[in-house]
Design goal:
The chain is built from six helices and five strands, in the order H-E-H-E-H-E-H-E-H-E-H. By secondary structure, the chain is of the alpha/beta class. Helix content is 37%, strand content 15%. The longest helix is centred in the middle third of the chain and has 13 residues, at 72-84. A five-stranded parallel beta sheet has the order 2-1-3-4-5. It has helices at 3-8, 24-33, 52-57, 72-84, 102-107, 116-127, and strands at residues 10-15, 39-42, 60-64, 89-92, 110-112. Helix 5 (102-107) links the parallel strand 4 and strand 5.
Length: 143
């Protein structure tokens, strides 16, 4: 994709949502909206039925780890749908979390922290079909 087309590309994201004790969903939106050169639409999993028509529109499924434990059923369904529909899965770790469920990390196509540049770089790279996403802001295996 040319640089000009990439600037005008609107990325369609399905972001995990649900019980959110630490307000991670709103914080994620603030982080991504802070990058004025990144255009995106949100397809929220609580506002939309999880059907074929919805998944045909989605570029990346974003799983916010801080929402996983209180919303395990819907998060697991999003993980399954990412595999079923071959939609890249971006896993965003919570602030200060050292331990995450390895099964989730293994299913993700990219794992990032809260740096907005890393989040956007991962989305753009995953959507544009480049090779495996390995960037300086990747989370290193801590085991």
């Amino acid at each position: 994709m040319s640089d000009e087309n990439q600037k005008n590309k609107v990325y369609n994201l399905l972001i995990s949502k649900g019980i959110d004790s630490y307000n991670e969903y709103e914080f994620y939106k603030e982080r991504i909206n802070s990058q004025t050169d990144f255009l995106w639409n949100e397809y929220n999993n609580q506002d939309n039925e999880l059907n074929d028509e919805l998944f045909e529109k989605i570029d990346v499924i974003v799983l916010l780890y801080g929402l996983y434990h209180q919303n395990k059923e819907i998060c697991d369904e999003l993980i399954d749908k990412s595999q079923e529909y071959e939609i890249p899965l971006l896993f965003v770790r919570s602030f200060g979390v050292e331990y995450v469920i390895e099964e989730i990390v293994e299913k993700a196509d990219a794992v990032v922290g809260w740096n907005p540049h890393c989040i956007i770089d991962a989305i753009v790279t995953l959507v544009n079909g480049e090779e495996e996403w390995i960037k300086p802001c990747d989370i290193e295996d801590e085991s």
